[in-house]
Amino acid sequence: MFARSAARALKSQSRLFSSSAARQTKVAVLGAGGGIGQPLSLLLKCDPLVSSLSLYDIRGAPGVAADVSHIDSSGDVKGYAADQLDAALEGVKVVVIPAGVPRKPGMTRDDLFNTNASIVRDLATAVGRVSPEAHILVISNPVNSTVPIVAETLAKAGVFDPKRVFGVTSLDVVRATRFLAEVTGADPANTPVTVVGGHSGPTIVPLLSQSSYGKAITGESYEKIVHRIQYGGDEVVKAKDGAGSATLSMAYAGAKFTNSLLRGLTGEKGVVTPTFVKSPLFADQGIDFFSSNVELGPNGVEKIHEIGPLSPEEEKLLAACLPELKKNIQKGKSFVGA
Ligand code: NAI
């Protein structure tokens, strides 16, 4: 019994962390003491591509680091206190940012803007100063605005490289894939769903028509699953009843995306996943950040894929996404005076 469940756990761990190349990397988590930061740090400690883990928070990171450092994987772990941000960023190749406040019931992600915008701006400023070559993975919400904030902050410092700034939208992909599997009985490991657009309500556009299982869903079932993918986060916020938003599934999705990037950085070919990046796809409509399938490679963004053929329903979802996304992006840019 134990042997079987252990084998299953190992199999799913290898799905989360494939490592085909030997080169390893120093990764920092900013906000490591939080609801996402703690399990994310745990999962990154288990990733064979992470050689060194730098955990920073304004409170609690040294404790998380001491705890996680006892795990018997090869990577080193060090925790940094509130006044040690620069030291935490020294020599890092990848910075993951889950710092900031989460939603409470009744809040939208945009309601977090006032608090999280300045947190993200200040952290991006420090990354630009100490480790300007680092890849930055933004989890803090509202992602549609915090990613432009990071990009513009780095641009002001003269160190913005669009190949190295990512909004982590993987949780939308994870949810869409899981929810589709629940409806169709498909194995989620083999039926990923592409999700494009942004990361909030109507800006989340699942492309079910591009999945052989997804395209069979029509009518009321289609409406229901799309709504669930767009507002899945609310299920968690409601169930946690004031204690925060998704943390464990987000940590899983964040670790999975980080592993994809690390595989790309180490030279693995064909690593493709949706992520919210500076993108030419809708730039002619004034929307210069967008999530679509992106091939990850040694420099970060290797190739931004077109969104591909859409069903009439998806055309409507995209039409609802674009104006909202444009507003969110502009709000982020205006915050940093861009
Ligand atoms: P939390 O409140 O449990 O943890 C946030 C942590 O950030 C705390 O430990 C806090 O001390 C730390 N922090 C605050 N200011 C900081 C600063 N200046 N420098 C470093 N650390 C700082 O919140 P939780 O649940 O971990 O969520 C974090 C963020 O992730 C929220 O903005 C939430 O909305 C977002 N989120 C994003 C998702 C996505 O799909 N991209 C999914 C779920 C949550």
Structure description:
The chain has 338 residues and is of the alpha/beta class. The chain has 2 domains: 168 residues, Rossmann fold (3-Layer(aba) Sandwich), CATH 3.40.50; 148 residues, Alpha-Beta Complex (L-2-Hydroxyisocaproate Dehydrogenase, Chain A, domain 2). It is 44% helix and 19% strand. A 6-stranded parallel beta sheet has the order 3-2-1-4-5-6, sandwiched between helices. It is globular, with a radius of gyration of 19 Å. The N terminus is likely disordered. The structure holds 1,4-dihydronicotinamide adenine dinucleotide (NAI). 1,4-dihydronicotinamide adenine dinucleotide binds next to helix 5. It is an enzyme of class 1 (oxidoreductase). One of its GO terms (molecular function) is L-malate dehydrogenase (NAD+) activity. It catalyses: (S)-malate + NAD(+) = oxaloacetate + NADH + H(+). Homodimer.
Write the layout of secondary structure elements.
Elements: H1 2-16, E1 25-30, H2 37-45, E2 50-56, H3 61-68, E3 76-80, H4 85-89, E4 94-97, H5 113-130, E5 135-138, H6 143-156, E6 165-167, H7 170-184, E7 195-197, E8 204-206, H8 219-240, H9 248-265, E9 271-282, E10 287-297, E11 300-304, H10 312-335
Parallel strand pairs: 1-2, 1-4, 2-3, 4-5, 5-6
Antiparallel strand pairs: 7-8, 9-10, 10-11
Helix pairs in contact: 2-9, 5-6, 6-10, 7-8
The chain binds 1,4-dihydronicotinamide adenine dinucleotide (NAI).
1,4-dihydronicotinamide adenine dinucleotide binds at residues 30-31, 33-37, 57-59, 98-103, 112, 116, 119, 123, 139-141, 143, 168, 171, 199, 244-247, 250.
